[in-house]
Amino acid sequence: MSDTPTRAGFAAIIGAPNAGKSTLVNALVGRKVSIVTPKVQTTRFQIRGVMLRGSAQVVLVDTPGVFRPRRRLDRAMVAAAWDGASEADIIVHVVDAPAQLKGSGKSVEDVERVIEGLKTHDLKAILAINKIDLVKREALLELSRQLYETGVYTDVFMISASNGDRTDDLAQALADAMPESPWLYPEDQIADLPERMLAAEVTREKLYLRVHEELPYALTVETESWKEQKDGSVRIEQTVYVERDGHKPIIIGKGGATLRWVGEHARQELEADLGRRVHLFLHVKVRPGWSEERARFSALGLEFDV
Fold first, then answer.
1. Residue 131 known to bind ligand
2. 199 labeled binding residue
3. Coil/strand/helix, residue 147
4. What is the spatial distance between Cα 18 and Cα 113, in angstroms, rounded to a whole number?
5. Per the annotation, does 39 bind a ligand?
6. pTM of the model
7. Is 160 marked within a binding site?
8. Is 21 annotated as a binding residue?
9. Maximum CA pair distance of the chain?
10. 26 carries a ligand binding annotation
11. Helix, strand, coil shares of the chain as percentages rounded to 5?
12. GO biological process annotations for this chain's record (predicted)?
């Protein structure tokens, strides 16, 4: 870096489930730090990705989706989203353009809920209209106008997080908004999640990719053991917890095929991320009511009493 003063701060990425928040964080960081699957509500806690741009370091807080909570876990996820937003230096509200243009449905309701939440908390946000590659320009302009007139946005960016279209302009705006400050993380650090938790997220992502049609959200992955080996490799043992006996055979698959696929793909990604060999061992256990256990919330960094 030059003599230019360094800048650093936090940018909270909020929005409805599956609006593209995690995809945007991964695009801005330049590497995957957050789970991305076809299922909504897959981000369960605030994952911090670190973006560098010139003399600025932007810590991107990828929050859980803001949606109508039905379970204790849902309430904790939504509370975590607003905690991340209220403590950030700047907020980015990601909106799924195709879903919003349908004019009805859960996605529209969730966007309205975010707008009301911003008003309630007296917060302003940057509006990032996402998935513009799937929508005609005229419709985008009208959507932008309608949302901007709600009065909660300072700027509007039309982006496609999946292919990186126009995300560069958003990245610069975030960097410019950071206050003067020493950097908060080392230059080569891209996320502040412990390796054990990141490893669990990788496996959870592969599970959702493989069985997202059959399995509900009632699963979690915990890294039970992380042992450094003399040859420089690492032995990782993880447990997949499901809530019902009927979920276990879905995870394992016929002749163990599904679990082998998940383990192989998770291992490959972990080896690429860690830069060394990984010996990954997966176990599946039934744990009824795990999503209502205080200890599970603490492990996810979520508040239990909300």
1. yes
2. no
3. helix
4. 15
5. no
6. 0.64
7. no
8. yes
9. 61
10. no
11. 40, 25, 35
12. ribosomal small subunit assembly
